[in-house]
Amino acid sequence: MNISLVLQMAADAEPERIGLVCEGRRWSYRALLQAARAAAADISSAGCSHVALLDESSEAAAIALFGAALAGVPYVPLNYRLADPDLGSLLNRIAPAYIVGDAERIERLGPDLGHRILSRTDFLAAETASETLSSEYEPPEGIAVQLFTSGTTAAPKAAILRHANLLSYILGTVEFGAAAEEEAALVSVPPYHIAGIAALLSSVYAMRRILLLPAFDPDDWLRLAASEQATHAFLVPTMLGRVIARLDAGASADLSAMRAVAYGGGRMPTELIERALDLFPQTHFTNAYGLTETSSTIALLGPEEHRAARSSTDPDARARLGSVGRPLPTVQVEIRDEEGRPLPAGERGEIYVRGDQVSGEYRERSALDAAGWFPTRDAGWLDAQGYLFLAGRADDVIVRGGENISPGEIEDVLLAHPAIADAAAVAVPSAEWGEAVGVAVVVRPGSAAPEEEQLRALVRSRLRSSRVPERIAFLDALPYNEMGKLLRREIRALFKG
User: Fold this and answer.
1) Which residues does 201 contact at the CB level (< 8 Å), separation at least 6?
2) Domain of 474: which CATH number?
3) Alpha carbon distances (Å) from 235 to 117, 190, 213, 262
4) 20 to 30 A Cα–Cα from 214, which one of 37, 337, 410, 457?
5) For residue 319, what is the domain's CATH number?
6) Which range of residues forms the domain containing residue 480?
7) Is the peptide bond before 96 cis (omega within 30 degrees of 0)?
8) Would you say 266 and 285 are in contact if contact means Cβ atoms under 8 Å apart?
9) How far is Cα 136 from Cα 42, in angstroms, rounded to an integer?
C-alpha cells in the first residue's frame, strides 16, 4: 500500500468536506486529491530522484507529500532554518530534486545540480490547473519519506520511512473517518519534523479538518484556535509554555472548543503540565513519545492517566505524570544495559523498540539488530506497571569516576526549588573524576537568584554526593530548538572555558 490511500479514502468518503485551512484558504478533500494527482504528474515528468520542500507549513506541504507518494518518489522536507553551508550540503545529497519553496536560496546554493525549482505560489498555481494522473493509477510502494536527522558532530543521517511503516502507525492508531465535521486539528509544528507529517496523515485519515499555522507564535496560535474553534492540537512543551504564559499575562481567546491537546518532542516540566490541567479542565491531555525512525508515536500517557496521576496521593502513581505512558499495543519496548541485555522494571538503560511502524533505516545503513530491535539512543526505565520514563539521551549520561549519572534526576531536584524555572545538567571536564556535573539554571522572573551553595545543598539533601554540581551557571534562558529539544551541546560549551 501507499500513503496516498489515506487521502484517496477521505476524498471518496466526503469529497466536499473541508480537509485543510491555511491563512484563510480552504481546501476540500476533492481539491487536495486533484492537486496531489497533478503534482504527481509533474513530478513524474521531471524525472527527479526526490521531492523536497524548503518552506514553512502550508497546503504546499500536504500536496507535495501526497504528490510525491503518488509519483513513487521520496518526499524530503528540509529545515529552512539551517545555515547556508549545511543546507547546501543537503541539496547536493538529494540532487536532482523537484523542490518547492525558497527558489532564490535554492538556486544560489544548488546551481547546476539539475533541480526543478518552484516557488510555493507557482507550485500551487500549477497543481490546481494541470493535467492529473488517472484515478485508476496504482501508486507504488517503497520509500515514502526521507528526513535528515539533526547533526551535531557528524553530518545529518538520512532517515528512511517506507509506506508500510507510516501506514502501520496510522492504521494501528487512528479510526478512519472518526472525526465529526466540526472537528479541527491545529498543526503548528514545522513540516520537516516527523510530528508534522504524522499530524497530516492522521488528521486526513480521521477526516479532521487541518488548521495549518505557517510558523508558531503564541498570539497567532490563540487567534487561529479561537477563530476556527479548534478541537485538537499538538504542541511541544516550549510552545505550550508560551501559550500559557500569554494567557497568564492577560491574553484572551475562546478555547472552549478545545477537546484534546497532545504534546511531545521534548521534556515536559511537571509544573507546566499541572498548570495546563488546571487552566483547561475540559481538555484531554496526552503525552506522546516517538522518534523519526519509529514513524512518530510509540508510547502514550492518556487523559485519564493524567488526571489519575494529578489527583493521586501515592508517590509512585503521581510520578507517572512525568512519564510518557505505556507503549502502544502495536510495538514492543525493552530497556537494555550496555551489553544489550534486557533489564528488569525500575532499572535504567537504553530504550529499544520493535514493531511494523519502526523503520530504523537510514540511506547509509539499517540500525536494526538481527531480531528487528531498534536502539533509540534514549535512556530510560519502565516501572512495575509498564509506564515508560525518559532520562535523556544515552549520550548525555554523565560518567563520573566510572559511575553513570542521569541528568534528569539532578534537573528534577533543581526544579523543585521555588526560584528555579528551568534547569539542565551536563558533563563538565574534571581532572580528578574525568567528568563531573555542571548545571545551568534559569531563575523565575521576580525571584532572587539562590546562592550556588544553596543549590548544591538541595541536591546533596536528595541525591548522592556524586550528583552535586561542581559548576553552576545562571542563564536568562536555556537553549532549545524549534521542536523544544534542549541543546545540551551549547550548555556544555559554556563550561569549556
Assistant:
1) 3, 6, 166, 170
2) 3.30.300.30
3) 31, 11, 12, 6
4) 37
5) 2.30.38.10
6) 397-494
7) yes
8) no
9) 17
Residue corresponding to grid cell 476556527 = 228
Q: Residue 366 pLDDT > 80, yes or no? A: yes
Which of 342, 364, 395 terminates a domain? The answer is 395
CB 334 within 8 A of CB 373: yes
The answer to whether 207 and 179 have CB atoms below 8 angstroms apart is yes
- Residue after which a domain boundary falls, among 360, 378, 395: 395
Q: Locate 266 and state its grid cell.
A: 521534548
Which strands sit side by side in the sheet containing 158-162, from one edge to the other? 116-118, 97-101, 50-54, 75-77, 143-148, 158-162, 361-362
Rounded Cα gap, residues 11 and 71, in angstroms: 18
Query: What are 60-79's pLDDT values in tens digits?
Result: 999 999 999 999 999 999 99
pTM of the full structure: 0.87
What type of residue sits at position 197? I
What whole-number distance in Å separates Cα of residue 349 and Cα of residue 344? Answer: 10
CB 197 within 8 A of CB 145: yes
Written as nine digits, the cell of 6 is 489515506
Residues in the chain: 497
Three cell numbers written together for 433: 573524576
